[in-house]
Predict the 3D structure of the following.
Amino acid sequence: MTASVTMPVPASRAPRDLSQSWSAERGPLIGLALAAPLIVLVVVMLLYPLGKLISIAFDDGDGFGSITAFFSSAAHIRTMRLTFVDSAIVTLVCVTVGSVVAWALHTTASRLTKAVLWASIILPFLMGSVIKLYALVVLLERHGVINRALMGIGITDSPTRLLYNQFAVVLGLTYHMLPFAVLPLLAGFQTISPDLVKAAESLGASRAYALFSTVLPLSLPSMLATGTIVYIICLGFYLTPEVLGGPTTPFSSSLIAQDVFQFYDLKSASVSALVLLVGSLVVVLLAYALVGRERLARAVAA
Amino acid sequence: MTDDPETSQPLQPHAQTPRKLGLKLDRVCKRFGEVVAVNGISLDIDHGSFVTILGPSGSGKTTLLRMVAGFMGVSDGSIWIGDRDVSAVPPGKRDIGMVFQNYALFPHMSVIDNVGYGLKVRKWPAAERVKRAREVLALVGLAGFDDRLPRQLSGGQQQRVALARAIAFEPKMLLMDEPLGALDRELRVRMAGELRRLHEELDNTVLYVTHDREEALTLSDRIAIMRDGKVESIGAPQDLYARPDTAFVASFFGGHNCAPCEAVLGPAPGTAGTVRVVALGQTIEVARSARLSADAKQAGLAIPGDALEFADAAGNTGAPAIVHSAVYMGNQIQVFCDVETKDGAPMQLRIDLPGGRAVPPSPGTRVRVVVRPQLVTAVPA
Amino acid sequence: MRKGLNLLGIAAALLMAGAAHAADAKLSGSINVATWGGPFTDAEKKFFGEPFTAETGVAVNYLAQSDSPTGTALLQATSGNITIDVVNSENAEELNSRGLLADFPDDMRASLENESVPGAVLPYQLKLAQTAVVIACNPDIIKKCPTNPAEFFDLKGFPGARSIVIGLPWTVLNFALVADGVPADKTYPLDIDRAVKKLETIKGHDDVLFTQSPNQAQQMLTDKEVGIAYLPHGTAYSVAQTIKDLKIYWDGATMTNDGLVVLKDAPNKAAALAYVRWIGEHAEAQAGFTKAISYPSPSKKLKDLLDPALYDALPTGHNVAPEDDAWLVKNMPEVQKKFQQFLAGGN
């Protein structure tokens, strides 16, 4: 009697054999497990040192005393100003020049042009930064190629100091960062059909206005994103300002290196590093707010 | 259809209006290194006419259009729009509107801004710009879509916006590069009808590029058929269909059978423009293409599918053949037959039989094929 | 800071710190020496490390810290993970004042004192490779060479581009004070503000370039980017190998206090002390080292083992006043911060 009461379980309700179950949707745990190495890396390589940095900066319990000391130092203020302003100039130049190069790469039909442009992007990219710096020194020095050329064509009559100043730093950083600007810009441009420019031209626009009214607004998010990448990388530069600028036009990282290796002053170095970090964060957040809103608008519209 | 492309004679679609030149191509060439994409095309198009450039891919039709638009320079020759040589004029100053295959709508602009773009660069005041854009949108049946973005529209709607944008500033010349290619068939037919209707309402010349012969047939006043960088033939759709002047036009445009003549017997006595030939076991008198010289010794025949029919299989008229396959298509049945030729060379012909309730012959059936000479044209072999 | 590529500073330091860790100092029979790299270390390896290993079986690893071996040692001490045994320290007082150094055993100290010139042996340090910062001038491109600090600061009277190496800031302050009229042996305690004021008179001038590393100054001299430089004597000596006419002036120079020290918490302290002792007791090895790179060694016999021209190129061969190490250690933070303000602040 009791045996006959047992109802067959409908097939769709059958308890799943977990060892053989398959689901088109991944469970949240699998994603987490896959990301685990990265999470560990972030914690170990980023959060722990960051905590350490903060604890060194504020370790003697005088609250914001170390911050106050930092901002009352003319050297630190000027260094920060140089770092942020020079990086901004470099970013502007890189995004502008990079956009031109990337657009040319995107639209040219000439294989030769394409090859030359790619070579001019990739070769410096592959070259070591020390070699690049040395090349610039050779070009810019008092008896270098550029000075000789300037004197040769009569623009100057004695060698001009092109090295060891802000100009050299900005030039060097731009040279270094240009490939980093071109590649993401190109990726952005590749979503824009060159036909848009042709359409604008056929509608009566000049070439310049056609680009300005179609490509520019469409690529603004990728330009902003690119600018952010370039800017953040620039802020942390050490070698280029050190070699091309020298001690009187330092970037923050030079001051940090001095603090660590020459003055054995980890506290001051930590404060500098924190200020730099906060500055970078502000830039990222700002860019995210701008780009993010744009993307959001598109997502909502679509 | 008897036109030689070098000295083409423009047709007059609106017979009562005085003739005015819309577009003139004068020995236009385009070379890419060794490759000649467009090889000395001369063409006169009346203002107000709708001309289609039809050709297989690689025939140079898109290159030709891009040269007219100004996106490519000419290697040789000159291009005139109206009475102006525009060969060295930038696209924006050629007074053209262009519709792109992928529409090329500005994705970041609303419909009204897209349509008003050409007016904006022409410095129209904002209020008039909007007014005009709304008029044109109403004309293409998109009233009330002003503030949508292109991606919020269907393919057909995007197509209309592209069209509205290209005609908003009333250009003399409207260029279209396979504008219906991205639409599904039903929409394509409907849009083609609308394009034709719009053309009647507007005062412009249309140069339309396509590889689809149905579109060309539906839309055009005249069709220029391109092949290997040259215009193979130009004429009204009916002429090109009924009396193709080359084998290529017959097969590519008309979809006709092409069969070689077994013998050319010379002009039929007393009738100019005809020729007597032997083909498919028959001696027939057919129309002669102007491209075929009167004393030619060899010729091919352009035979429409409905110019062939079956004769009594047991008799001895026509050519013996075996049914290869048959396709029922509703209003007609297309039967493909392998014809036995004297020299044994394979030849397949398509025969269009009336459809309806008729039953297609089964493959392998032995038949005899005869030709109705009235619909056949002799073309150069 | 006198050797090697300052350029690769942080990266190199971090890499080497990692390498040192990987080398696992617990392996018996090896020691790690934090040093300057470049020709300096090549000479150390050839004249000290290899014969020492051959004799004792203890392997010697040289870890190049081009910016500052002392700084690296301090970083290791701060993190509590010490892998360095011996430091070629440019600032032993700093390490000693933090209690990081091992004192030499009595017998070792007695032996070293017996072998060395007076003043070369401290309780925790064997002086080696001291530096004097000197004026170098290339008469090929400079019409009138400045021969002392006052003339170096006289840009009008002695025109031409000049480079000032700032890696040892107190030597620059000392240099400015002498230029301002303080006798060379009376500069300590340094009047920092007066020195900075003097330096301000030439900062920003187109002819004056401050350079972090001696290598950069060397490159500028050989590239003729500058004709005059204030730079460590060893670098000047090295430049003189290329520019044969190079003039070197010792007027107003002071001598740094470099030397070998052993860390108190060195993983292989016994071997480390043995290494220092071996060097102190081998006059021929010291002479070879000095010959190779023209930095002084402490041995009494050095003068007899070297030819007079080279002996003359050493700070120990000149009447060069020593620095006041005790004052420097006490006032180093002020020296450095004020110097940093001078360089990076203002315009």
Notes: Residues 298-302 of chain A have pLDDT under 50 and may be disordered. Chain A has 13 helices and no strands. The domain at 91-244+278-301 of chain A is CATH 1.10.3720.10 (MetI-like fold). Chain A touches chain C at residues 73-79, 130, 133, 137, 141-143, 161, 163-164, 238-239, 242-243, 246-248, 250, 253-255, 257-258, 260-266 (CB under 8 Å).
